[in-house]
């Protein structure tokens, strides 16, 4: 799927070197293709779906079974979950990730392509969440990949940047910098304690842990690919680690039954401390920056 994105025909050149607008089935993509970085961002959801800095393997994972249809979520990359998380409403993880955003900015600075997207409330969104809002997502792709969300709304909300990281084998992967306490989403929110703030993942075993006191930086150590991906969280209250394991994945039609060893989700979130209602001109923020060490 990764290579397919960069072989799509070009619909429009966006005025910056190597930045074009393309379409995968029903979903428009901003594609960045030059020697320093290859990346793609879907206008549906303002979602980074691919990022590969020069000289590195692709960093984000993307499902081969994603249905590239308008209104259908894209499984992989960095989905933006807002104004709710999980199954607190319909659609799951909120409507921001399946709405069509407007591209409002595209420029290059110091080798990084900077993109800006905006989404505003409509009659359709108010039928799902009865409040006015303006969302701005800023994406930077180069040697690092950054995603920043700004929320201007008169009602509190929760959000998560649901990052899917590609790994060589989840059973040879660990995540550091999580803190020593969590609640277990697979056991009804039961509290747990973790020695040293490091989660060692077990291949085939599901994990859904909510860490309410994480460090500002998580490190995903991938023994199979021999690399460390640094995940720098900004303005967050929680980090969520998720993998469906060998059994739960069978109930997910947009995931192959054998895909669970290929990724781990390390999610930058505002769950235990929601994004607050903002005065006119004010904003609540959440961000993540990825870097291969």
What report would you give on this structure?
This protein has 293 residues and is mainly β. 5% of the residues lie in helices and 47% in strands. It has 3 helices and 21 strands. The strands form 3 sheets. It has a 9-stranded antiparallel β-sheet with strand order 7-8-9-10-21-18-17-12-15, with no helix packed on it. A hairpin with a 5-residue loop joins strand 13 (181-184) and strand 14 (190-193). It is globular, with a radius of gyration of 18 Å. The protein starts with a helix and ends with a strand. The relative contact order is 0.15.
Low-confidence stretches: none
Distance between the termini: 25 Å
The run of helices and strands is HEEEEEEEEHEEEEEEEEEEEHEE
Number of H/I helices: 3
How much strand?
over 45%
Strand order of the largest sheet: 7-8-9-10-21-18-17-12-15
Overall body shape = globular
Mean pLDDT: 95
Please name the defining characteristics of this protein.
mainly beta; 3 helices; 9-stranded antiparallel sheet; single chain; 7-stranded antiparallel sheet; 293 residues; 21 strands; globular
């Amino acid at each position: 799927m990764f290579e397919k994105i960069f072989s799509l025909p070009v619909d429009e050149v966006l005025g910056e070197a190597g930045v074009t607008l393309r379409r995968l089935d029903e979903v428009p993509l901003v594609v960045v293709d030059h020697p320093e970085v290859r990346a793609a961002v879907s206008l549906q959801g303002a979602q980074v779906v691919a990022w590969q800095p020069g000289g590195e393997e692709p960093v984000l994972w993307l499902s081969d079974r994603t249905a590239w249809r308008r209104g259908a979520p894209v499984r992989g990359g960095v989905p933006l979950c807002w104004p709710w998380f999980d199954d607190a409403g319909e659609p799951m993880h909120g409507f921001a990730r399946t709405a069509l955003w407007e591209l409002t900015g595209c420029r290059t600075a110091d080798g990084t392509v900077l993109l800006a997207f905006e989404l505003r409330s409509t009659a359709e969104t108010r039928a799902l969440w009865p409040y006015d809002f303006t969302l701005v997502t800023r994406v930077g792709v180069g040697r690092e990949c950054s995603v920043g969300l700004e929320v201007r709304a008169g009602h509190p909300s929760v959000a998560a940047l649901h990052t899917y990281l590609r790994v060589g084998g989840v059973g040879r992967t660990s995540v550091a910098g999580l803190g020593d306490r969590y609640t277990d989403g697979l056991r009804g929110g039961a509290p747990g304690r973790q020695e040293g703030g490091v989660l060692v993942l077990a291949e085939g075993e599901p994990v859904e842990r909510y860490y309410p006191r994480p460090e500002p930086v998580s490190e995903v150590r991938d023994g199979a690919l021999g690399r460390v991906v640094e995940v720098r969280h900004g303005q967050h209250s929680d980090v969520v680690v998720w993998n469906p394991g060998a059994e739960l994945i069978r109930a997910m039609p947009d995931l192959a039954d054998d895909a669970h060893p290929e990724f781990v989700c390390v999610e930058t979130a505002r769950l235990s401390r929601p994004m607050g209602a903002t005065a006119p001109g004010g904003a609540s923020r959440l961000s993540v920056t990825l870097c291969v060490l």
